[in-house]
Amino acid sequence: MKKVGIDDISHFDFLDHPDRGSINQALTTLTALGALDADGQITEIGEWLVEFAIEPPLGRMLIESLRPDIDCPNEISVIGSFLNGKNVFVRPPEKELELAADRAHDQFIKNGDSDFSVLLHVWNAYVDSGYSTDWAKENYLNEKVLEEAKNVRLDILDVLAGHGIHVDPDEKPKFKKDAINRSLTAGLIGNLMKKVDRFGYSKVDGTKKEISIHPSSVFYHNPPQAGSFIVAGEIFINPEGKTYACNCLEVKKEWLKEYAPDVFYNYTLKHKDRHHQSANSSRKSYRKSRHNR
User: Fold this and answer.
1) Which of 8, 97, 157, 161 has its CA 20 to 30 A from that of 63?
2) DSSP of 247-283
3) Residue 173: Cβ within 10 Å count
4) pLDDT tens-place string over residues 1-31
5) What's the CA angle centered on 40, arms 37 and 43, to 5 degrees?
6) CATH architecture designation of domain 190-273
7) What is the pLDDT of residues 218-237, one digit of tens each?
8) Within a 10 A sphere around the Cβ of 190, how many other Cβ atoms?
9) pLDDT per residue over 107-146, tens digit each?
10) What is the pLDDT of residue 247?
């Protein structure tokens, strides 16, 4: 709508008018993604998102992946194909098979530094198997999720090809850690969270608090340090009312300067204030010790 010059979306005469809260949340998300500027005007990134005509977070990841200094559209096309909230790992109902499932899953998880790198390990093994359904079942993986990811990835590559960007569908993704993680951060910045205590996280926009890492995440057993920032592919509330984050990635603080400048500014300001207070306290202690000699 911004593309065709409709600025006052809240008062647009929709046939089925969404509530104001949903409209405001959508505008906030688009601003966080860089699709709208501070005045609510569409940006170059926003123009690209319109052209791609896919979900804005995925589109934003792809845009970032195309930067010459990042260059990982193949990797993002794979990861993006799994961002539908469905778990690729299968937990067998039989207790006696749980250990076998854990061992099978561990071959993908043990070298993963984020939930997204785990997905790349799964995908590469799936490709090596010849996209085998039997292999998926033997490794306690959801063959339907894998098949869907395969088809969604081809759709993503078709979108890129439609804009003159060609990625070989048979090329296996590489583990370009920082490039991949920066692209994902750009697209998932709307789910940016800060670790506030031993197990809890809060969204930096204040919309959700008391968030826990889901047990399926690699960060469940290896959580980042206090004060760290992470993004999540999904934040949801389970039937018992507990809020979980899954598909998580730790965000380097220096990346916030580009993808969440307000958060970076506030973090830097607080860090400087603490440093200043600590320095003043040290100077006072030093002067007091000299006075008492």
Assistant:
1) 8
2) EEEEEPGGGHHHH-HHHHHHHHHHHHHHHHHHHHHHH
3) 20
4) 444 344 555 544 444 546 666 677 788 889 9
5) 45
6) Beta Barrel (2.40)
7) 999 899 998 999 999 999 99
8) 22
9) 999 888 999 999 999 999 999 999 999 999 999 999 999 9
10) 95
Whole-model pTM: value is 0.83
Q: 164 Cβ partners below 8 Å, 6+ apart? A: none
According to DSSP, the β-strands at 211-213 and 243-251 are parallel
H or E element that contains 229? strand 229-237
Query: One-letter amino acid identity for 97?
Result: L
Helices (H), 98-216: 98-109, 115-128, 133-138, 143-161, 177-188
Q: Using alpha carbons, select from 194, 212, 211 the residue that is nearest to residue 266.
A: 194
In angstroms, the CA 113 to CA 131 distance is: 25
CB 86 within 8 A of CB 145: yes
> Are 140 and 99 contacting, i.e. CB atoms less than 8 angstroms apart?
no
Domain locations along the chain = 1-53, 190-273
